[in-house]
Every structure is written in structure tokens, then in C-alpha cells.
Amino acid sequence: MTRSSPVSRIQRAGERFLTEVEGITTRHAFSFGQHYDPSNIGFGRLLAHNEESLLSGRGFDDHPHRDTEIVTWVLSGSLLHEDSTGESGIVYPGLVQRLSAGSGVVHAERNDAYRVDRASPRVPVRFVQSWIRPDAPGGAPSYAQRDIEPAALATDWVPAASGSERDAAVSIGAATSTLWITRLAAGATRVLPEAAYVHLFVASGEILVEGVGVLGEGDTLRVVGSAALRVTGRQPSELLAWAMG
């Protein structure tokens, strides 16, 4: 049996759907809300991949979710999370957050962490939020957040959220899905995680992907079919890669 060659597709930053309301800018990798494209509805188990920018005091008030694994990674600033289970937390760079919506949860996310922590600066917050389809619907909602050591991110890919990696920072209810994060110095290299579906996002910087080309901030690469592609930093860069079965 012949192994098929992997297929890749670049989505440039400017090709993402854009939603703007007062003080909030969202860039969507896939169809979302009023943006509909039947050829771009998720990827693998990834239902949504949104890059959010909130000015101080802005955010998303109480809104519901169910049967979704929601993973949040802050790039700059800080984000206050509060939900209907009584959980709350401040999410900042280097800390990964997971909300398993299960049978149903209501939560709010706002750039007003200074309400509960006077040390939180009143600056814009930029974060990436991913929605993953869980293996089974229902169940009790749950919440987790955990810091990741900067030194680990600078050395290799770190499993930030996973349904299978035992040393992942937080667990999710999707056995074949893992969010890997790394930070590359200029000239440093990594090998892209291998899986049936890989979604690579350049959160900052610029990289060269073997056999694909140059990707800049906000660009994504979707790979179907296992491919150990070499990634080289052309500038200091932060990368998020969903590897999914």
C-alpha cells in the first residue's frame, strides 16, 4: 500500500474573516457567526480558531456553550474568566486555560482583570481561542488553567492541552487532539508535530516551513497527512500547532 503525500494549504492573515465591534477585533480562521463559507467549516476536530483583541474594559459578557472543549492562550495583556460553575481566573501569557463546556455552561471573558487584581495593567489583551469537538457529548462542565515554563517553550514543542499526552499542562476530552506550543529564536528549528491533521498558527514573528515557504504573523498552515516538516525561525516567533487524529 502506497502512502499518500501530505497536502498543505496556507491561509494568510488577511484572508481570515474579520469581525469588529466597539473595542473588539476578532479574526476567524473558519466560518463563524455571520461569516459563512461552506468550503471552510473547521478542520479536523478544530471547530473554531479565533484571534481576539480586546481594548481595556471590553469583552464578551455572559454567553452559553455546550459540548465544546475551549482552549485559550493569551499572547499579551490579561483576560478575566468567570463562569456559571463558580470558576474564575485571570489568564495571562504563559498560562493555558481550558473550559470543557459539557452539558452546558455560561461564561464571560473580559479585559478587566483589574477588577479583581489591582496589579493587572489596563492595556489591550490579545489571545487565541480554539474550540475542539469532544469525543462524547454531555458531562459536567469543568475548568482548568496552568502555567507553562518559558524555558520549556524555548526548547521544544510543549503539549499545552491534550487528550492523550500525559504531561500536557491541561487535559481535554478529545483523545486524538493536542495543542503544541513553542517559541523559536531566529535561526532555531523545530519539526512540526505529525498527525492526520495539523493546524499551525504563527502567533508572532516569521518562519520558513520546509517545502512550503515563508509564513508571517497571523498566517496559518493546514496539513492533511502526516508530514515531519522542518520549521525555522526567520525572526523570534511563537507558534501554536493543533495535531489531531
UniProtKB/TrEMBL annotation:
InterPro entries: Pirin, Pirin_N_dom, RmlC-like_jellyroll, RmlC_Cupin_sf. Binds 1 Fe cation per subunit. GO terms for molecular function: metal ion binding. Its cofactor is Fe cation. Gene3D superfamilies: Jelly Rolls (2.60.120.10). Keywords: Iron, Metal-binding. Residues 21-132 form the Pirin N-terminal domain. Fe cation binds at H63, H65, H107, E109. Belongs to the pirin family. This is Pirin N-terminal domain-containing protein.
